[in-house]
Design brief:
The complex is a heterodimer of chains A (about 675) and B (about 210). Chain A is built from 18 helices and 17 strands. In chain A, strands 1-14-13-17-15-16 form a six-stranded mixed sheet, sandwiched between helices. In chain A, strands 2-8-7-4 form a four-stranded antiparallel sheet, with no helix packed on it. A four-stranded parallel sheet of chain A has the order 11-10-9-12, with helices on both faces. In chain A, α3 packs parallel to α5, α4 crosses α7 and α14 packs antiparallel against α15. Chain A starts with about 25 loop residues before the first strand and ends with a helix. About 0% of the residues of chain A have low confidence. Chain B is mainly α. Helices cover about 40% and strands about 5% of the residues of chain B. Chain B has seven helices and four strands. A two-stranded antiparallel ribbon of chain B has the order 1-4. In chain B, β2 and β3 form a beta hairpin. In chain B, α3 crosses α4. The longest helix of chain B is centred in the first third of the chain and has 26 residues. Chain B is elongated. Chain B starts with a helix and ends with a helix. The chains are: A alpha/beta (about 675), B mainly alpha (about 210).
Chain lengths: ~675, ~210
């Protein structure tokens, strides 16, 4: 007999389990329409891979997982997809969620599937892949994808595998009948799990209020090494962390996972689903659901296809809507009111509870907390519910977190014992959600701050760059203006030309005086420097030759090059000396400029003294002279037989001049007439 | 020297005090240089409390400038996105009295909105891109723009500059992802079923008794 432990607190609510275990599991049959929500578990919803109008077979995958924490969805029976749309699902919010709707054809044709009876031959990744592809999510209530839970981090040693057959919540008997009737499958599924995670010991924990289950499991587990552990009934023993403490005495640390203390926990329903998936090759398309409460005539357990509308199942059990005050999915402690009986059964629907008003009366108004401390006495995680109640009312979220609000498993024990009937758990649920929202809001605000600051920096940088560019442009413009003022200050082009010419001459004169010495000096210096460099290079080359260095070739080229340069420099010096000794050649251009200037001046002065008529006369004469010249040139070019282009150009010049002359003639005539 | 000091103890005291003053003065001076705080730490803390929507409703160009203004004595009730909770947090941080939100700067919105550009109507003028304080709008000149929803703070600043009025502020509809339990209503007390069968048990016991 294994030593069991106990956890703090806990309660003993009336069990109300007897009424639904009188008959064996009944087959709920195939409803006309199945509504299969795409999200039946914690994690990302699956995405559909079928279209409206498609025919599907039983067990065919109709939606594939999206992301790691996600599982696929399969068709529970054969039929036709009639809609993929938002439908009401079993959720306390009453909101719609995407669902695939199948009209069943009643034939229930299976997709060809093969299991692998010899699962021992399969390795771990293969097993995990099969479990994931079978769409198995935890059947206990939370619905966490089983493959994710089983894929522990490498290096984490799992000492204990626990199969949870506790089912501590009142009214629910789905796991109980499963253990009674399918103990063999549970044991087989457990063996697969044991092989998968290679645990040292494997335990199945069952409360002592299920003697038939204990007998059946013990018989099935004979000689397998799987230990069936019986322990006293107490709510909430079925909580994962509570069960671990009962069976091993270990407490899962705050914010940790069971694998942190070397334990993995799975529900008995999940074990059967894994057996079906591995050995029979069947995906998870049905489950055992308890239909109970005084609102139904025949409380019992059904094997029901996922997606079956709740009212179909309720009718099978003799539902009396007028007696029922509200329909509850799950048990009376942790369940929630279903918005409408059309909602479908999903992977986590372990119980449908249809109580009468006398059975589960509506809650009376809450009264003031009297600080009796009963809630703290029953809390299975040793929290202080009365303190957290105050903080939740005052929205003091920091204090709530300090009081470990997030360790609350929402079992409802505190609310159950509260003499003031305060809905404590609802306060904690709301506060948890609000804290999570605040966390995500503060994450977002931090993100926005970073982006805002990055933008500010970018804008500053851009402004600085623009400013720098503008400054550079301004400077360049100023420079241009300055040089323009220096160069072209004179308005009169002739005056400017004169000044330019003067400046040029002055420069030439200065150059003529200074240049010879400067130039000569420069050339002489160059010759001396190069000679020195040649000497050093030659010395180095000699040294290298003596040492037999690798650099000889490189140095040789260096020496050659320097020698060539020296020769060039000497040549330049020589040329300069000989040129300088001759007559300086730059006297003539200066004179030419002078002459041109004088000519222009003279012409201008002459112009100034003439009357318009005389001017026109002179203009005409000039034009006639140019025309003569052009004609002569054209004739010459024609005689030489030059290119057509040149001839054309000259011919057009002649034409233009002729026109100009006639225009000038007209002007002159006008002037003469006047 | 020692004789002189023995003779006039007042000099000894004077020298000792001046010496001490010099030493500690030097120490303090060194500490002031060595442990100098960059920026304004109060403004940083205030900035952490502000919601970082960068909406400018407070009259400052962004949350950081308002944080600096608060550190310099500006009123704490000019941030509508922060709401009452934000003012309360600022009041706690700065140890000042809570004052109600200054309605002049806008009203508290129930839910955060996200900008949405009706893309068919967008003419690609980039005006909204320039207005966005967190670079949450993607697009280029003469190209259609779109809002990166996850980056949008819902500050409304892009709505005004749009010449064709094609930007809407959309409020996120409640979905299964965003839904959560509300605090129980203290008046109606219409709560869900958690653990209400205790009363049934008690009445059953009463009957049995």
């Amino acid at each position: 007999m294994r030593k069991t432990f106990s956890f703090h607190g806990g309660i003993h609510p009336p069990e109300n389990k007897a009424q639904s275990v009188r008959t064996p599991i009944a087959d709920a049959g195939i409803p006309a329409q199945l509504v299969i929500p795409l999200s039946q578990h914690i994690g990302a919803p699956a995405s559909p891979i079928v279209a409206v109008g498609d025919d599907v077979l039983k067990g065919q995958m109709i939606a594939e997982p999206r992301g790691l924490v996600s599982v696929p969805v399969h068709a529970p029976t054969s039929g036709n997809i009639i809609a993929i749309e938002d439908r009401v699902i079993a959720h306390p919010s009453g909101l719609l969620a995407p669902c695939i709707v199948i009209a069943s054809d009643g034939k229930d044709d299976w997709l060809a599937h093969t299991g692998s009876a010899d699962y021992r031959a399969l390795d771990k990744p293969d097993l995990l892949e099969r479990i994931r592809n079978a769409g198995i999510a935890g059947m206990g209530g939370a619905g966490f994808p089983a493959a994710v839970k089983l894929a522990v981090k490498p290096g984490t040693a799992i000492a204990t595998l626990i199969i949870n057959g506790t089912e501590c919540e009142p009214y629910i008997t789905a796991d109980d009948v499963l253990m009674r009737e399918r103990a063999q499958q549970i044991i087989e599924g457990t063996k697969i799990l044991r092989q998968l995670i290679a645990s040292e010991e494997t335990l199945i924990g069952v409360e002592d209020n299920k003697p038939e289950s204990l007998v059946a499991l013990r018989a099935a587990a004979q000689g397998t090494g799987i230990e069936i552990v019986e322990f006293p009934t107490k709510y909430p023993s079925g909580g994962e962390k509570q069960l671990i403490e009962i069976l091993t005495g270990k407490q899962v640390p705050n914010g940790g996972l069971p694998s942190d203390v070397g334990v993995i926990c799975q529900n008995v329903g999940t074990a059967v689903a894994i057996y079906d998936a591995i050995v029979l090759g069947r995906p998870l398309i049905s489950r055992i659901t308890t239909v109970t409460g005084d609102g139904v005539e025949a409380p019992q357990n059904f094997e029901v296809l996922l997606g079956t509308p709740m009212n179909y199942l309720l009718d099978k059990a003799g539902y009396q809507p007028d007696k029922n005050n509200r329909l509850i999915m799950g048990g009376p402690m942790m369940g929630f009111t279903v918005p409408t009986p059309e909602a479908p059964i999903v992977k986590t629907t372990n119980c449908l509870l249809a109580p009468t008003e006398a059975e589960l009366p509506s809650p009376p108004p809450a009264q003031a907390c009297i600080r009796c401390g009963m809630c703290a006495e029953v809390c299975p995680v040793t929290l202080l519910p009365q303190q957290m109640f105050w903080f939740a009312q005052g929205k003091e979220f920091e204090k709530l977190e300090q009081h470990n609000l997030f360790d609350c498993i929402e079992c409802g024990a505190c609310s159950w014992v509260c003499p003031s009937t305060i809905p404590l758990v609802q306060y904690y649920r709301a506060s948890k959600a609000e804290i999570l929202q605040l966390r995500s809001a503060s994450e977002k605000s931090e993100h926005s701050r970073v982006r805002f600051e990055a933008r500010q920096q970018r804008l500053e940088r851009e402004t600085a760059e623009k400013e720098a560019k503008r400054a550079a442009r301004k400077q360049a413009a100023e420079q241009r203006a300055l040089t323009a003022a220096e160069d072209g200050g004179a308005e009169d082009p002739i005056q400017a030309a004169i000044e330019r010419a003067k400046a040029k001459k002055a420069a030439q004169l200065a150059g003529a005086e200074n240049a010879p010495e400067n130039e000569l000096e420069k050339l002489e210096k160059a010759v001396v420097t190069i000679r020195k460099r040649l000497d050093t290079a030659t010395a180095k080359l000699e040294q290298a030759r003596i040492e037999g260095s690798d650099l000889v070739v490189a140095l040789q080229t260096g020496v050659d090059k320097t020698a060539a340069k020296l020769a060039a420099a000497q040549q330049a010096l020589h040329d300069y000396q000989s040129a300088n000794s001759a007559e300086p050649p730059h006297k003539e251009p200066a004179d030419a400029a002078q002459v041109a200037i004088a000519r222009a001046m003279a012409a201008r002065a002459a112009d100034a003294g003439l009357s318009p008529q005389e001017k026109a006369q002179a203009q005409l004469q000039k034009l006639q002279q140019r025309l003569e010249k052009s004609r002569a040139k054209l004739a010459e070019v024609r005689a030489d037989g030059a290119e057509d282009k040149i001839i054309e150009a000259l011919a057009s010049t002649v034409t233009r001049l002729t026109e100009k002359i006639s225009a000038a003639q007209d002007q002159l005539n006008e002037l003469t007439d006047a | 020297m020692s004789e002189l000091l023995a003779q006039y103890p007042v000099f000894a005291a004077l020298i000792a005090l001046v010496g001490l003053g010099t030493v500690f003065g030097a120490l303090l001076g060194f500490a002031a240089v060595r442990f100098k705080t960059e920026g304004n730490p109060i403004a940083d803390q205030v900035n952490d409390v502000l919601p970082q929507t960068q909406c400018g409703q407070c009259g400052y160009p962004g949350c950081r400038p308002y944080a600096e203004a608060i550190a310099n004595g500006e009123a704490i009730n000019k941030c509508p996105p922060g709401g009452e909770a934000g003012i309360q947090a600022l009041a706690d941080l700065l140890d000042v009295d809570f004052i109600p939100l200054d309605e002049e700067h806008g009203e508290v919105k129930a839910t955060v909105a996200v900008a949405f550009i009706r893309e068919a109507e967008c003419i690609g003028c980039t005006k909204c891109i320039q207005a966005c304080p967190v670079d949450a709008i993607l697009g280029a000149a003469k190209q259609m723009h779109t809002v990166i929803t996850s980056e949008c703070t819902g500050c409304d600043l892009c709505v005004e500059p749009c010449p064709v009025d094609c930007i809407d502020m959309l409020h996120e509809e409640q979905s299964l992802r965003t839904w959560h339990w509300d605090l129980p209503d203290p008046v109606s007390r219409q709560v869900d079923i958690i653990a209400t069968d205790a009363l049934a048990e008690r009445s059953a016991q009463d009957e049995a008794a």
